[in-house]
Every structure is written in structure tokens, then in C-alpha cells.
Write a structure and sequence with these properties.
about 170 residues, mainly alpha
Length: about 170
């Protein structure tokens, strides 16, 4: 049951705002450096600064904002990384297909594409990935790898093996 009272967010001071931004963005390596960088007193004992910085980071009106902003920075970085990876793979494809490039440049681009796709994984990497894999997982990997090389992959499922996950598998 609600008592009609909704808690408002407490207003942040400019120093708290700078501290939160420095901690969330990772621009300062420690809470203490974020604390002093935000303009809080930098004199005094190091242990006092560390204690005050830690207390500020744990305050009920500061900690949730730090976490929200960290999550936003993480999401932004992930999106940027995904875009960068896509761009690099596209440029490698273009280089591999560019007949005006030297053969060594095209081969290098193809080698990097093969590595990125896992087409040329070494035997140890494959063995490590497959250790403990179920038969269904192995079949799925085989079908996926075959579809990269053959337009209509062959059915390699052993007779009597159900390729559909059973209700018990969930």
C-alpha cells in the first residue's frame, strides 16, 4: 500500500556531479583521485581522503547514479565495439576482393577474415571447445561449419539420433 509519498532524488552538488562522472566513466583510476579531481580537499592524510571518497561513493543518493552511468558507459562502449568490428570485417572483405591490391595484401586480409570466422582454428582450440559438448551441440557446429563451404549441407546425422531438442533437454 502506498502512502502517497514518492521519494525525490536528492539534488547533487557540482562536486558530487564531477565525482560521479569521473568514477562512472573510469577517467580516474581510483575513488581518491576522482574525489580530489572533483575539487574536494586534497590536503591531509591519504587515509582520510580514501575514507571520504569511499563514503561519498556509497551515499544513497550517489551510489545508484554511479551504477546507472557505468551501465550507460558500458552499453555505449559495447555498441561502439560492435560497430568497429563490423567495419573492420567489411574493410577486410573489400581488401580481399580488391584485384588492384597486391596478392600478399589480399592473402593477409583473407587470413584475418579466416581467423575472425574461426575457419582455420587449430586442432587444440577445437578440442578445447568440444570437450564436454553434447552430441547435439557437435552436430549443430558441424552443420554450421559445413554451411560455410557447401550451399546445401549433407545430412550427417547418425541414424536414430533425434536432431530436435527433446522436452527433457530444457
Amino acid at each position: 500500500m502506498s502512502n502517497g509519498y514518492t521519494k525525490k532524488r536528492r539534488r547533487l552538488t557540482p562536486k558530487q556531479e564531477k565525482f560521479i562522472e569521473a568514477v562512472a566513466s573510469g577517467s580516474e583510476p581510483t575513488l581518491t583521485s576522482a574525489y580530489t579531481g572533483a575539487g574536494y580537499q586534497s590536503g591531509g592524510k591519504g587515509s582520510t581522503l580514501r575514507t571520504n571518497a569511499s563514503r561519498l561513493a556509497k551515499k544513497t543518493h550517489v551510489a545508484p547514479i554511479i551504477e546507472e552511468r557505468k551501465a550507460a558507459y558500458t552499453a555505449k562502449a559495447a555498441a561502439s565495439l560492435a560497430g568497429s568490428k563490423s567495419y573492420v570485417l567489411q574493410r577486410l572483405r573489400e581488401e580481399a576482393d580488391n584485384l588492384d591490391s597486391r596478392a600478399s595484401e589480399r592473402i593477409s586480409a583473407l587470413a584475418l577474415l579466416a581467423k575472425a570466422s574461426g575457419a582455420l582454428d587449430d586442432a587444440k582450440e577445437r578440442k578445447d571447445r568440444r570437450t564436454g559438448a553434447t552430441e547435439q551441440e557437435l552436430l549443430t557446429e558441424l552443420h554450421t561449419r559445413m554451411s560455410q563451404y557447401i550451399e546445401a549441407p549433407l545430412d550427417v546425422t547418425p541414424e536414430g539420433v533425434d536432431t530436435q531438442p527433446s522436452v527433457d533437454d530444457t
